[in-house]
Write a structure and sequence with these properties.
With 173 residues, the protein is α/β, with parallel strands linked by helices. It has 6 helices and 10 strands; from the N terminus they run E-E-H-E-H-E-H-H-E-H-E-E-E-H-E-E.
Length: 173
């Protein structure tokens, strides 16, 4: 399990974030874009992004989109629609910007298999016994590059403890 040091996740790469305090430091509510706005930006990326001095785009609504679909549809949508949009973002900004997906319930829904260190998303009811394989879907199996974002102000240093506020991948391929 890789623990991310510092705040590189705020400046580059792709992150899944559920730490509310970290979000409030990173972006004002009016700076966060909806998943619909994110898709509308594809191919028309702004020169300056709304957060973190123009270096970060925070997107809300991914969780709700996936939860509205059954797991098979959700996985297909993530592969066919979400992943190409994320890759387009990366292509536009190279390694000079961060894309952060706000997942309010991520702490309870992102799980890691300790034997394989593979991350998955626990689906919502009525499919809560099923998981989406985040590593295979979003990171093309490159989970070794995924780092856990740990709140530096949290006194509990356990990577599975309350200080775990997200995941970060430096570059999807």
């Amino acid at each position: 399990m890789k623990i991310l040091q510092g705040d590189v996740w705020k400046r580059r790469g792709v992150s899944l974030l559920w730490g509310g305090e970290a979000l409030s430091v990173l972006a004002q509510p009016q700076q966060v874009v909806s998943i619909r706005q994110f898709f509308a930006m594809v191919g028309q990326w702004p020169d300056d992004l709304p957060c973190n001095d123009g270096n970060t785009l925070v997107v809300a609504g991914l969780e709700g989109c996936v939860d509205l679909m059954d797991p098979i549809e959700g996985e297909a949508w993530m592969k066919s629609d979400l992943l190409p949009a994320v890759l387009a973002f990366q292509d536009e900004y190279s390694l000079e910007a961060a894309l952060v997906f706000w997942l309010p319930t991520g702490k309870n829904r992102v799980k890691m298999n300790r034997a394989t260190e593979a991350y998955s998303w626990v689906c919502s009811a009525p499919h809560s016994n099923q998981h989406l394989d985040l590593g295979r879907i979003l990171w093309a199996g490159a989970e070794a590059d995924v780092g856990r974002i740990i709140d530096p102000d949290c006194t509990n240093s356990d990577p599975d403890g309350p200080g775990w506020i997200g995941l970060h991948h430096p570059r999807l391929s």
